[in-house]
């Protein structure tokens, strides 16, 4: 089985892979492999040759292109979605439309994008995903509002996992093990 991984904004599918390695190693013991996909929008930046991609058009909530990109690769070989930052926002909002439904989603540091007023977030979309979800929040996250992410997790009926860190994919052994144990608990 596979887990689809969605990167954050200003990133790409290749750039996220090194940050996922500790989690990938733990999930591999459960027969799960991580697979990444690129976001649909290119962010123009003449200062670097690196591909910087975004899930949403500039300052917009148009989720259709992001949904289409995820739906294009999604099939029954995927068990769930693991997403970081803006990818988490996308995962939480488009997952309920995928067929078959993901058995789980893991969102890391990203249900409250910085350019969005927390009161304007589409909580009805977040709450429409009824399968298990794990919301991983770095208590020192200054990019996304950690406290607001915790509130959204409660409204989603999501399991909350806090760690000592900022706006990063956790790579400390304790947090990685807790993520893997949560996934394993779904298979029992």
TrEMBL record:
Pfam hit, one: FSH1
GO CC entries: cytoplasm; nucleus
Keyword Cell inner membrane: no
GO function terms (MF aspect): hydrolase activity
UniProt KW Hydrolase keyword: yes
Domain Serine hydrolase, chain residue ranges per copy: 1-177
Taxonomic path: Eukaryota, Fungi, Fungi incertae sedis, Chytridiomycota, Chytridiomycota incertae sedis
InterPro entries given in the database record: AB_hydrolase_fold, FSH-like_dom, LovG
Annotated protein name in UniProt: Serine hydrolase domain-containing protein
Record keywords, A-Z: Hydrolase
Superkingdom of source: Eukaryota
């Amino acid at each position: 089985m596979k887990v689809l991984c969605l990167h954050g904004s200003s990133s790409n599918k290749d750039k996220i892979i090194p940050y996922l390695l500790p989690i990938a190693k733990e999930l591999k013991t459960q027969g799960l492999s991580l697979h990444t996909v690129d976001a649909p929008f290119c962010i123009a930046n003449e200062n670097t040759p690196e591909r910087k991609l975004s899930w949403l058009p500039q300052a917009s909530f148009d989720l259709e292109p992001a949904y289409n990109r995820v739906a294009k690769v999604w099939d029954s070989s995927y068990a769930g979605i693991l997403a970081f930052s803006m990818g988490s926002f996308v995962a939480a909002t488009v997952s309920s439309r995928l067929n078959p439904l993901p058995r789980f989603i893991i969102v890391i540091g990203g249900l409250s994008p910085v350019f969005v007023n927390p009161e304007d977030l589409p909580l009805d979309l977040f709450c429409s995903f009824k399968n298990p979800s794990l919301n991983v929040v770095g208590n020192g996250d200054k990019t996304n509002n950690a406290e607001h992410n915790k509130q959204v997790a409660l409204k989603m009926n999501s399991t909350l996992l806090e760690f000592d860190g900022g706006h990063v994919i956790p790579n400390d052994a304790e947090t990685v093990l807790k993520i893997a144990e949560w996934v394993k608990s779904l298979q029992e």
